Amino acid sequence: MSKNVENLLREICFRIKIKGREVLKDFPITPAQFDLMQKLYFTGEKTMTDLSKMLGIAKSTTTGLVSRLEAEGFAERKRKNDDKRVIAVDLTEKGKAVIDKVILKRIEFVEKVIEDFDDKSKKQLIVLLVKLNESMKDYG
Questions:
Q1: Which residue ranges does the record assign to the HTH marR-type domain (predicted)?
Q2: Residue 75, beta-bridge partner list
Q3: What is the residue extent of each domain of the chain?
């Protein structure tokens, strides 16, 4: 049972991710850069060290990703007010707009997929997904 649930969730997440990334064809952004942008979008500005840890990549790799995003105007580095030695990275409005487009594409895809579900099935799906998500929070 658990193996089937994991498999289904992995396949669903993969399909939604691929559909959303179709938007990236219009932008000079690699999947690794997009992952970094998503982290910033959902968690706010981060230091290079924090980004490296969150993404599980070397700090030098993170620096390269941020440099390319900054050159394209999707991200910016800024000094922290409380400690001028610390550099934080955040998305620019241009970067946020890309993520917004990806999220919209994902939502449209999910809407299309479930449009033939009756209202009861849609509500049951939401209830079960909320329950699953809440249960996962208990396990980290």
A1: 1-134
A2: 91
A3: 2-137
